[in-house]
TrEMBL record:
Keyword Secreted carried by entry: no
Keyword Transferase included in the entry's annotation: yes
One cellular component (GO) term of this entry: cytoplasm
Protein name per its UniProtKB record: Glycosyltransferase
InterPro entries (UniProt xref): Glycogen_synth
GO molecular function: alpha-1,4-glucan glucosyltransferase (UDP-glucose donor) activity
Highest rank taxon of the organism: Bacteria
UniProt keywords, alphabetically: Glycosyltransferase, Transferase
GO BP: glycogen biosynthetic process
Amino acid sequence: MAPDALLVEVAWEVCNQVGGIYTVIRSKVPATVQGWDDRYCLLGPYFPHQAQGEFEPFDEHQLSTLNDPFAGAVRKMRSYGYDVQLGVWLVTGRPRVVLINPFQVYDRLNNIKSDLWHNHGIPTPEGDDLLHQVEAFGHLAKIFIQTLTGEVVPPQRVVAHFHEWMTGVAIPELRRDQVPAHLVFTTHATLLGRYLAMNDPNFYDHLMQVSWLPEAQHFNIETAVRIERAAAHGSHVFTTVSELTVRECIYLLDRIPDAVLPNGLNIERFVALHEFQNLHQQYKSKIHEFVMAHFFQTYSFDLDNTLYMFTSGRYEYHNKGFDLTLEALARLNYRIQQNNVDGQVVMFFITKRPFSSINPGVLQNRAVLDEVRETCEAIERQVGERLFYAAAASSEHRLPDLSSMVDDYWKLRYRRTLQSWKTHILPPVITHNLYDDQNDDILNFLRRANMVNNQHDRVKIVYHPDFVSPSSPLFGMEYGQFVRGCHLGIFPSYYEPWGYTPLECVARGVPAITSDLSGFGDYVMQTVPEHEDKGIFVVQRQEKSFDEAAEELTNMLWDFVLQNRRERITQRNKVESSADLFDWKNLRVHYDRAYALALERI
Ligand code: G6P
Ligand code: 1S3
C-alpha cells in the first residue's frame, strides 16, 4: 500500500441504501480505515432523507479548522459556490464522507448531457430522472476529484475508485480533462448481462455471440450501457467481483478486467461457540411464535421437530433461482411423504413485491395468539399463587386439582379465545395481499403443484413479500436475527455476480446452499476445500439442465432433513468457523493490489 497516496471511494450507495453495493462499501469500511486511516474518504450523492439517519455533517467551525486534504477540497468547492458536505458516516469505522447534492447543477443539465454526447458519444433521453441524477452527480464528482488533485494535494497521489456505472460516468470526463487521478472502476454486474439473463434461458450459451448495442437498444438501456463501457475503458484499472462476471465483461464490455475483487463481510465472532448456538435457539423461538400463529389455527405440528429453511433477495424469479428452489421443494415434499420421515419443513420466501396490505387474517391470527399467551400467563399466575398457599397450608402431601384453582372467568376466556380462533381454512401461503396476485410466479407454481399448506404437506410455505424488519408486526425481528433462527438458507441462483445472501448465513453459522453460477459459489469451489463438510453446498448449474440441478438440490435438502439435532449443531459450528475466510481483513488485499496497480499505471 502506498503510504503517501490518498484513496477516494465513490459509490451511489454511500449513506444511501439501495442494494448489495451498500453492503460491500459499508462492511468494508473498518478494514479499509485500518489500512488507509485518515487518507481515506468516501464520496456519494446527498439525499437528505436517506442520509439523515447515518450521516453526521461537520459544522462550519469544524470544517474550517480541519487540516486534511478532503476538507481542503470541500472548502475550495464551497468557495466556488457548490453545496458540498463533509462529515462522518455513522457506521463501524466512522469514515470521512463527502456528500454532494446532484440537483444543484440541474440548471446546467443540458450542457452536461451535451458534453457526454459530443465528447463520448453518450446520448441521454429526455425525462429519465435517474439518468439525470447520475450524470449530474458524475459531473460534480469529477469537479471534486479535479479540485482535490489539482489544487489541494500535489504532489500527493490520489486513487479514485468508482463503483458501478452510476458513479463511473465521471471517468471519461476525468480522462478527457487529464486529471492526474489514478482511476479504478469496479462493475458489480454488467447491466446488459442482468437483462439478458432475465430474458434468455440460455444466456450463458449465447453470451459469446451478443451484439451489445442492438441488445442495449432493445432493452432501452443504451445510455447506461454506454456509460458502463466508457467507465470500463477509461479506467486505469478495471475490476469486477467474480470470475463469472469476468466473462460478461469480456463479451459485453470488450475489456478483460485487470483484477477480481471478491466481496467479504465484517465478521464478528463470539469468543465461545455456545454463544452463537444460544442465539440460534433464542431467535428460533421467535420464529416458532410466528409459525404457531400462522398454522395452528388450522392444525398443529411438533415445533421441536420442525426445520426452518428460507431464501431471500430481490424478486428475480429466474435469476435468483426461486424457480429451482420451488421445484426442489415440491420433490422434497413428495419424498418426505413417501418415506414416512418424521418432522416438518417450513420454507420462507423473503422478498419484495408490491402489496396493498398485510393479509388481515394473518394479522388477526398473530393478535389472537398474543391473547392466548396473555390468558395462559394469567392462569399460570393464578394457579401459582393458589398452589403456593395450598401447599403451605396443607397437611397432606398430594397435589390438589389444579383446574379448581382457576376462576371461571379465565376458564371461559380460555375456551372462547380458542373457539373463535380454530378453523378449517388452510393457512395461507402468502402473508400479504399482492397487487398482482394472479400473475405472480411463486404463487402460480404453488397453485400448479398444489403446495398450498395442506395438512399432509410436509413442506409448508410462507411467502413474505416484504423484507423482515423489527417493525414488522408478523416477525418483529431484524433480518440477521431471522437468519440465525433458521436452519438452512437456499440460494441456487442462475445469475448472481456475487451474492451476499449465502455469505450472510455463513457469517452467522447457518448452513447455506449456493450455485456454481453465483460468484460466491464459484469462489467457494475454488478456495474452500471440503466446503460441503463446512456446511456450504454448491448446486451445479453450469452445463446442467434445470431438471438435473433440481434433482441435485432435492438431494441436498433431503440429506439435510435426515440429519439429527447433534449433527446440525456440529455442522453449524463448522460453518461458523469457516466465516473468517470471508472477512474483509483477509480479502482487502485484493483491493490494495488493484490500487497499487493503478498507482503504477500513470
Ligand atoms: C442450539 C442450542 C441448543 C439447541 C439447538 C437446537 O445449539 O444451543 O440448546 O438444542 O440449538 O438446534 P436445532 O438445529 O434443532 O434448531
Ligand atoms: C450486485 O447487487 P445485485 O443483487 O443487483 O452487487 C452485489 C455486490 O457486489 C452482488 O453481491 C450481487 O450479486 C449483484 O447483484
